[in-house]
């Protein structure tokens, strides 16, 4: 009975990424709307009180920077460095506004500024994931934006819709809510066609859907729907449900999180775990570890690989790379993402997890490969 209760509880808890666009934050004006931010925060706090984990991706830095500069009546060039400067000025204001709003509910916030490079490079991806999960584990709300001030073209995500999908993938969220100033995806542009109808659910993001947004996958679309569809495509393919809804609806977040009809819901194409495992299997392992029988048995039982069970470290690899896990006879039994590089793994092999910090001078995690980051190749015989 105990286990069943725990399992049911575990299914109720979910992880959500909520992306708030500039138009939602400013309520269509030229300034951040504290009132709108408060409405959003109230909903986020309500979800947290139900033990759901929430990550906020917020735009509005450039808008807040502009708001600041408008006081000085200084004409500004439209160049990229000027935008980056505005983002740098505005980010502190944006963050301060969020902090003040969440302070009312005693919710601590943590600013995380990311670029594409932080989420595509394997080591940095793991670092970002560990940091975000640690922030969540400390009941703190991660508030994410792109690091616009330093993001040059090669490392930029470019828009927060796609950034929020990458974040949802990194933290393995169940749901991504993209809040905008439209009610969702329509059969036609609702600003031009009065017959346009809202599409409540998209099971498959095929060409007919891309065409509705007046866009191709790479092109520019109406009302910013293209980047939202790109985000929905990316997220649903990594097992995340996506809802695009109107951020001015006072219960948009709560409704989306509870599966009530709101906006357009995009169903995941695959499960979160499946997509991750497929990715692990598609990577060529760069090295290997040979483990003892106890460790091999533990892996088959769904446990993580601890350094204590590692007998030998073969070849060179970095933290975040996929490695082979071999049993004592050399048989390849699993592939997984390593938390430690080969040289670190050599130092902690055969040692207890409690000794890691003493040996290396730091500790990323108590395990070498987490069970969630592992695919078992041979079932127990
Ligand atoms: N990172 C930008 C900002 O905070 C917004 C990008 C976007 O909204 O897509 O101003």
Supply the key terms.
Archaeosine Trna-guanine Transglycosylase, Chain: A, domain 4; 5-stranded mixed β-sheet; globular; alpha/beta; Carbamate kinase; 8-stranded mixed β-sheet; disordered N terminus; 13 strands; binds glutamic acid; 2 domains; 381 residues
Topology (elements, then pairings):
Layout: H1 2-12, E1 15-20, H2 22-25, H3 34-49, E2 53-58, H4 61-70, H5 80-103, E3 109-114, H6 116-120, H7 122-137, E4 141-146, H8 160-170, E5 175-180, E6 201-202, H9 207-212, H10 225-237, E7 241-246, H11 252-257, E8 264-266, H12 272-282, E9 288-291, H13 293-300, E10 310-314, E11 322-326, E12 332-338, H14 342-348, H15 356-360, E13 369-376
Parallel strand pairs: 1-2, 1-5, 2-4, 3-4, 5-7, 6-8, 9-11
Antiparallel strand pairs: 7-8, 9-10, 11-12, 12-13
Helix pairs in contact: 3-5, 4-5, 8-10
Description:
By secondary structure, this protein is α/β, with parallel strands linked by helices. The chain is 40% helix and 18% strand. The chain has two domains: 3-271, 3-Layer(aba) Sandwich (Carbamate kinase); 283-376, Archaeosine Trna-guanine Transglycosylase, Chain: A, domain 4, CATH 2.30.130.10. It has helices at residues 2-12, 22-25, 34-49, 61-70, 80-103, 116-120, 122-137, 160-170, 207-212, 225-237, 252-257, 272-282, 293-300, 342-348, 356-360, and strands spanning 15-20, 53-58, 109-114, 141-146, 175-180, 201-202, 241-246, 264-266, 288-291, 310-314, 322-326, 332-338, 369-376. A hairpin with a 5-residue loop joins β11 and β12 (332-338). The two termini are 30 Å apart. The structure holds glutamic acid (GLU). Glutamic acid (GLU) is lined by residues 21-22, 59-63, 87, 145-146, 148, 159-160.
């Amino acid at each position: 009975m105990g286990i069943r209760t725990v399992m049911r509880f575990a299914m109720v808890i979910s992880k959500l990424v909520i992306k708030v666009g500039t138009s939602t934050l400013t309520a269509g004006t030229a300034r951040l709307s504290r009132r709108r931010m408060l409405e959003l925060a109230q909903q986020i706090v309500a979800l947290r009180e139900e033990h759901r984990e929430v990550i906020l991706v917020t735009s509005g830095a450039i808008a807040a920077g502009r708001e600041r500069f408008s006081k000085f009546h200084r004409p500004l060039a439209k160049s990229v460095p000027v935008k980056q400067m505005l983002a740098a000025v505005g980010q502190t204001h944006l963050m301060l506004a969020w902090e003040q709003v969440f302070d009312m509910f005693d919710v601590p916030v943590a600013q995380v500024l990311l670029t594409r490079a932080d989420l595509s490079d394997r080591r940095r991806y793991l670092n970002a994931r560990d940091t975000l999960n640690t922030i969540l584990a400390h009941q703190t709300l991660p508030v994410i934006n792109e690091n616009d001030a330093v993001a040059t073209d090669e490392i930029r995500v470019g828009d927060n819709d796609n950034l929020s999908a990458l974040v949802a993938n990194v933290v393995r969220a169940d749901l991504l809510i993209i809040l905008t100033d439209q009610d969702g995806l329509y059969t036609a542009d609702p600003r031009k066609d009065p017959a346009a109808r809202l599409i409540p659910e998209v099971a498959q993001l095929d060409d007919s859907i891309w065409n509705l947004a007046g866009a191709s996958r790479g092109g520019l679309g109406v009302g910013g729907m293209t980047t939202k569809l790109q985000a929905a495509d990316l997220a649903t393919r990594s097992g995340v449900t996506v809802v695009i809804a109107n951020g001015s609806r006072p219960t948009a977040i709560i409704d989306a999180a509870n599966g009530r009809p709101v906006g357009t819901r995009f169903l995941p194409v695959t499960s979160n775990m499946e997509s991750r495992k497929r990715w692990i299997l598609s990577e060529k392992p760069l090295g290997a570890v040979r483990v003892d029988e106890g460790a091999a048995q533990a892996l088959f039982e769904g446990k993580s690989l601890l350094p204590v069970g590692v007998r030998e470290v073969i070849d060179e690899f970095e933290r975040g790379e996929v490695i082979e896990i071999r049993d004592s006879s050399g048989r390849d039994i699993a592939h997984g993402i390593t938390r430690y590089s080969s040289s670190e793994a050599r130092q902690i092999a055969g040692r207890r997890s409690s000794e890691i910090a003493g040996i290396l001078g730091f500790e990323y995690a108590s395990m070498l490969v987490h069970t969630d980051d592992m695919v078992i190749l041979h079932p127990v015989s």
